[in-house]
Amino acid sequence: QVQLAESGGGLVQAGGSLRLTCAASGRTFSRFDMGWFRQAPGKEREFVAGISWSVGNTYYADSVKGRFTISRDSAKNTVYLQMSSLKPEDTAVYYCAVGPYGGYSNAGAFGSWGQGTQVTVSS
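Structure (tokenized):
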């Protein structure tokens, strides 16, 4: 069982930056992906970015390409989401999750979730 804890959310003005952190603990498999998702009020949870833990390949939703960067620190069992050029439409609760290796972007493929951290971007 993997436990995930997100942090780093907050209130920021449009055009600003934030870095989210997800600390993982517990048992993981040798090959897996970590992903960031977000959910705005009244909307479905959507994929933001993912990274393969073993080789570091990254993949992004079109809406955040060029603005967000996902990375991981294997020694610290931590994954990050650096968010820049933030827009009001980025406002959501952001979740990290563990999923199967292979670049999946559907939330149903991810089995372990954190509690989420709120990101609010003011215009």
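The chain has a mean pLDDT of 94. DSSP finds no helices and eleven strands in the chain.
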